[in-house]
Structures are given as C-alpha cells and as structure tokens.
Amino acid sequence: MQTLAGKKILLGISGGIAAYKCADLTRRLMERGAKVQVVMTEAAKEFITPLTMQAVSGRPVSDSLLDPAAEASMGHIELAKWADLVLLAPATADLIARIAAGMGNDLLTTLVLATDSPIALSPAMNQQMYKNIATQENVDTLARRGMLIWGPASGEQACGDIGPGRMLEPMQLVEQCEAYFQPKPLSGKSVLITAGPTREAIDPVRYISNHSSGKMGFALAEAAAQLGASVTLISGPVNLQSPHSVQRVEVSSAQEMHTQVMNVADKHDVFIGCAAVADYRPVSIAENKIKKTDDNDDISIAMTKNPDIIASVAALTANRPFTVGFAAETQDVAKYAKNKLAKKNLDMICANDVSIEGQGFNSNDNAITLYWKNGEKCLPLSSKKVLAHSIMLNVHERLSVSNS
Length: 404
Ligand code: C5P
Prior knowledge:
Layout: E1 8-13, H1 22-31, E2 35-40, H2 50-57, H3 68-73, H4 76-82, E3 85-91, H5 93-100, H6 107-114, E4 119-123, H7 127-131, H8 133-144, E5 148-149, E6 153-156, E7 162-166, H9 170-181, E8 190-195, E9 200-203, E10 206-208, H10 215-226, E11 230-235, E12 246-250, H11 254-264, E13 270-273, E14 280-282, E15 303-305, H12 309-314, E16 322-329, H13 333-343, E17 348-353, E18 365-372, E19 375-383, H14 384-403
Parallel strand pairs: 1-2, 1-3, 3-4, 4-5, 8-11, 8-13, 11-12, 13-16, 16-17
Antiparallel strand pairs: 6-7, 9-10, 14-15, 17-18, 18-19
Helix pairs in contact: 1-2, 1-9, 4-6, 5-8, 10-14
C-alpha cells in the first residue's frame, strides 16, 4: 500500500549530527511517492549542505525568513499551508525549546507557528541533554499540544555516550510517516491491552515471574493507536517506552492487573489479553526476607491460583468488550488454542508456537495463527510491529462482523 504517494512532507532539519541521515530519509520518502520540501536552520547547514538536500529532494532548500527571492516563489505562509505533514528531524534540544516557547526567530520555527498541519518531531541530542528536566518538560509540552513525538531511540551516540537521544533511523521515520497516513479504521474505538509479565511476591525482596518482554503487547498498543483507537495499556514490569498517545497503567502482580482491568473493561470496545499472567502466586507473602537455614536443604512455597483476567472479562454480562486472547504453546498449538478459545469464551485467539527458536518470548519476531469461531488465518513470521498491525486489522474485521 503506497500511503505516502502524493503526500507533501515538509522536512525541517535542525543542527544535530543526525542531520547527515536526512539525505537518505528524503530519498526513502520520495521512493514511496512523497514530495519533500526541505527547510534548514542555520546550524543544520553546518552538518549537511543545502546543495545535497536540494539534489536529493529535487527542490531548492528553504532556509531564510527574510529572503525576498524565496518569499516571491513560495512564501513562508504558503509553505506552512503546503505541507500535509511537518517532520522535524533531527529535532535538537534547542529547536524543541524554541518551539515550546512559541518563538519564531527563524524560518523553521515560524513555519511551525504558521502551520495547521500535523507536526511530528524526532528528538536527537546527547542523552544527558535529553534527560535534562528542561528538555523533558519541553517535549511533554509539545506532546500535550498534539505534536507527534517519534523517538528518540536509545543506544550509542556520536559523542560516545550511551542512552536515549538517537534520532530514529530513516526507515523507522518512513514507517512512522506511512503509519500516520494510513486509513484509521479503529477511530472512535477504545482498546484495552494487557502486556508483559506479572510478579508474584514471595517475600519483600523476591518474586516469581516469567520471561515475557512485553514487546508484543506494546506493539499491539502502538498499532491500535496508529489505526485511530484510543488505547489503554495495563502493563507488568517491562523495560519499554510507552507508545505515543497510549495511556499506560503500571502494575506488578496478577491481582493488581485483574483489579485495574476489571475497573475499566466494560468501558472498552476491545480487550486484548497479551500479558503473560502468572497462573499461581504464593499463598502468603513472608513479612521478612526468608533466611537460608543450615538444617534444611529444601523449602516449599504453597501456591494458589490467580484470577484468570481474560476469562473474567469474557464473562462480563453487560458491555462485554470483543475479547482477544493469546496462546503460547509448545505442542499441538491448534488444538490447545481452539480449546482455550472455547473454554475462556473468547472472540479470537492468537496462537504461537514458542518452541520454535527466534520467535515468541523476548524475540522481535513472531508468527501467529488467529482462530475464531468457524474461522482461522495464518499470519507468517514477521516483526512484532508488522504482526501487531495485521492482528489489529483482523480484530477490526471480526469486530465489524460481530457488530453487524
Ligand atoms: O491459560 P493461558 O495462560 O495459556 O491463557 C493465555 C491467555 O489468557 C492470554 O491471553 C493471557 O493474557 C490470559 N490470561 C489471563 N489471566 C490469567 C492467565 C492467562 O488473562 N491468570
């Protein structure tokens, strides 16, 4: 699907080292049919030349607010109206601060003030500058005003530091643009998702848990939001950033997750139980740390069953959401998944074989078969993000059928 065909993207480049990636970004956007108009700050020109950007975009770069010749061809107000999307990449701490303050002291900030097109920005700066409370508050302010914040990624930085502040890679920005322009079939729908593991406390310092990374649930939340849904994500402890415009509730134990889900489940159109909920928890949590003793090599912990969250949601009699479960199996995947679909009274189940290396738990890839009453569909091995998107489109399709 060529969602970028004919789309007019105003690419605002500010002065960060990641600016050198903008030539590639422009190429990739244009390959997909987008028209790219580049606007550069003075500092950006220290990192990549306007000539390079003109050559790859096929258009003269705009860089001056007070240039009579430029104003005579496409003036800054006209430019602000031209864009279907304003993409600020890299967005430095300085650019973000100037936009947050409402300044218009160069062409790029003036365009941001003058446009009523959506604005996306991809922060890029040293990790300490990104973590600085001033930058954090500025980014929060822009997100609150409805700007889309794409990134930053975490990792090794040009200065040698490691941490958050890397601009998303050009292809990731292209994917964000594509997702932004795709049709929004879930707009007006609310989706509640559980993700990650739960932790079942044994004593004040120990717990029983599992290897769930939360990646699948977070990818589902991101896909649902990109498809227009309002999304609540109830997550166990994971090391992942919240997807943009998703409301996140953090929990630890299965009982906490159950309480939070049941508080809001009947206010949602769709519930997806993607969390790897612990089936059992210790009957009691020791008040103090359990000590190792010399007289006994074995200890036992009495366990009791946790509430089945998804079954509780599926059993709602009023305002029951369309309920989707996951089945991670190591054998007889189809048989167990279909059993679970019926036993838990689900509308759809996403089954995956976790015995195959390179997919499922903790991996970035997965393959899934969807089952519903009288139907099934195979979604082949792909990234969890791509898979999440297909799952959400299938949920939308089944939801439409069940509502008709
Ligand atoms: O029974 P099993 O754990 O294999 O079922 C998996 C599905 O049930 C997943 O959707 C999971 O999120 C959900 N589940 C739950 N509460 C539990 C156990 C599993 O919601 N206590």
